[in-house]
Design a protein that fits this description.
The chain is an alpha/beta fold and about 550 residues long. The protein folds into 3 domains: about 400 residues, Alpha-Beta Barrel (TIM Barrel), CATH 3.20.20.80; about 60 residues, Oligo-1,6-glucosidase, Domain 2 (Oligo-1,6-glucosidase, domain 2); about 60 residues, Immunoglobulin-like (Sandwich). The chain contains 15 helices and 19 strands. Strand 2, helix 3 and strand 3 form a beta-alpha-beta unit. The protein is globular, with a radius of gyration of 23 Å. About 50% of the residues are buried. The N terminus is likely disordered. It binds beta-D-glucopyranose. Beta-D-glucopyranose (BGC) binds next to loops.
């Protein structure tokens, strides 16, 4: 590593770019993105001005759930490359001053994991079965599932197996796809195996882990039924499926492992939790001896409305402060409708009482893309001005919309099948990134079809095209990120709300920074000589600039 970033606590203010490896860039012309493709385009991320990348799972996997079905936690999917490629990526990213976070999937493995195959081959009650959650079924012949828990992807969370002797047998738990059996976190083997996985990657130089579904893993003992009328929702408070007290000791154990690396040149390693939970529950994970940081999805969930965002921001900051943690802000990721399209919907807020519903609620409703684009530009100005860290999902920097018209036969998300073709799932935000050229596949090889088809009207949104346009999303993102690095008021810290009308968010940060976002019909007048950046070119009269509806501005105060 030539120059390694060393600031401790870097995660408190970092801007992290999410790479979805299958869709980022393809180096070997097979239509699937890969690690060499990421290496070849690290210059795009360095020029963008982010501090770190988070790479969605790159492990060997049958890809039943986009790689969130891991069959070997200590290797690389051959479609993506080799361990040597991963090492090269980490060291080349570090040389550019970029940290690297990878994805840990601890709630479940793939059914192709050797330990699950061992479990299927072993007898009920064996140590091999105890690494997963096997139970006898209910009913005279065990023909009914052990309880009424539903899978996030639709249908029951239980699957019956055929025992090695050919008879119908026990059931195993799978919160997600049937091919993703849940680990049993009461098994010492599982605990020790994940310690080994963490050390394996920390020793190779990765800076941290994103913990997939960090509020699952541990289930209430006895696996009690949900009340008949309960939604599967992760946000609905007490549930035997989610957010159990037994998570705390696991998080403390992992924190101790990350802290063991404090004396290395890179400093201690970090964790970011993925957990769709209300603030008060979420921030318990961020107590000083537990995890470092967490995605705060409240911004993503909020409708494009001043009152809703104001409440979300105020409550988020207070909750994080109560445990001494820094907040983060998220507009999108590989599971959610892209912001440009979401903000162009009549109802832009998400209903997370059912975690599989958010994308379903948007499919098939009209999108005002022009309005969505305007709002998404203002939204990132708000996001990057708030205290704490921020996440950018690949393509947000280009203003890519959701691809809402993928043909049925192109869909990969297991949600599509498991919902009986009622929920089109999350493929629309996972379409490959357009790099260059005027027609699909935009810089991907024409020799192979990209794994998801690319739209024909994306010529304007390629990296190449946006680089040449000073009014593009890319130009805006670069300006904001450069300012964020240079301006001591931005990143971790505090903010103060200024008096403003109900339809305006107006806040200051010290030293000398002010952000205004206008959600309403009445223009907000500002001193044009103090403008640092604006989401669109503001209409200006003498030294007065007007911030219109769905526009934002950063000012020197
Ligand atoms: C990931 C999803 C995945 C699920 C199961 C998540 O929350 O972000 O993409 O389907 O976990 O692993």
């Amino acid at each position: 590593m030539t120059s390694s970033p060393t600031t401790n606590d870097w995660w408190t203010s970092a801007v992290v770019y999410q790479v979805y490896p299958r869709s980022f860039a393809d180096s070997n012309a097979d239509g699937i993105g890969d690690i060499r493709g990421i290496i070849d385009h690290l210059d795009h991320l360095a020029a963008l001005g982010v501090d770190a990348l988070w790479i969605s799972p790159w492990y060997p996997s049958p890809m039943a759930d986009g790689g969130y079905d891991v069959s070997d936690y200590c290797d690389i999917n051959p479609d993506f490359g080799t361990l040597a490629d991963a090492d090269a990526l980490v060291s080349q990213a570090h040389a550019l001053g970029l940290r690297v976070i990878i994805d840990l999937v601890p709630n479940h493995s793939s059914q192709e994991h050797p330990w699950f195959k061992d479990a299927l081959a072993a007898a009920p009650g064996s140590m091999e079965r105890d690494r997963y959650i096997f139970r006898d079924g209910q009913g005279d012949n065990g023909e009914f599932p052990p309880n009424n828990w539903p899978s996030v992807f639709g249908g029951s969370a239980w699957q019956r197996v055929t025992e090695p002797n050919g008879t119908p047998g026990q059931w195993y738990l799978h919160f997600f796809d049937v091919s993703q059996p849940d680990w049993n976190w009461e098994s010492p083997d599982v605990l020790e195996e994940f310690d080994r996985v963490l050390r394996f990657w920390f020793d190779r130089g990765v800076d941290g882990f994103r913990i997939d579904v960090a509020n699952s893993m541990v289930k209430e003992s006895g696996l009690p039924d949900l009340p008949d009328d309960a939604a599967i929702g992760e946000l609905v408070g007490d549930s035997p499926m989610w957010d159990q007290p037994g998570l705390a000791p696991i998080q403390r154990r992992w924190r101790a492992i990350a802290d063991d690396y404090a004396d290395t040149p890179q400093g201690p390693r970090m964790f970011v939790a993925e957990a769709y939970l209300p603030h008060d529950r979420l921030v318990r994970y961020l107590e000083p001896d537990r995890l470092h940081t967490s995605f705060n999805f409240e911004f993503l969930i909020s409708a494009w409305k001043a009152s809703s965002l104001r409440t979300t921001i105020t409550e988020s900051l207070a909750a994080h402060e109560s445990v001494g943690a820094s907040a983060t802000w998220v507009l999108g990721n590989h599971d959610n409708f892209r912001p440009v399209s979401r903000y162009g919907k009549e109802i832009s807020g998400l209903d997370f009482s059912n975690p599989s519903a958010p994308h379903a609620q948007f499919h098939g409703t009209p999108t005002d893309v022009a309005r969505g684009r305007l709002r998404a530009r203002a939204a990132v100005m708000l996001e990057l001005a708030l205290p704490g860290g921020a996440y950018i999902y690949q393509g947000e920097e280009l203003g890519l919309p959701e691809v809402e018209d993928l043909p049925d036969e192109a869909l990969h998300d297991p949600t599509w099948e498991r919902s009986g073709h009622t929920d089109r799932g999350r493929d629309g935000c996972r379409v490959p990134l357009p790099w260059s050229g005027c027609a699909a596949p935009y810089g991907w090889s024409a020799n192979a079809n990209t794994w998801l088809p690319m739209p024909n009207n994306w010529a304007e949104w390629t990296v190449e095209s946006e680089q040449q346009d000073s009014t593009s999303f890319l130009a805006l993102y670069r300006t904001l990120l450069a300012e964020r690095r240079a301006n001591p008021a931005l990143g971790a810290g505090t903010m103060t709300w200024n008096e403003s009308g109900d339809e305006v968010l107006d806040f200051s940060r010290e030293p000398g920074f002010r952000c205004i976002v206008n959600f309403g019909g009445e223009d907000v007048a500002v001193d044009a000589t103090t403008v640092i950046a604006s989401s669109v070119t503001l209409s200006t009269h003498g030294t007065t600039a007007l911030v219109g509806r769905d526009q934002a501005v950063w000012l020197r105060a």
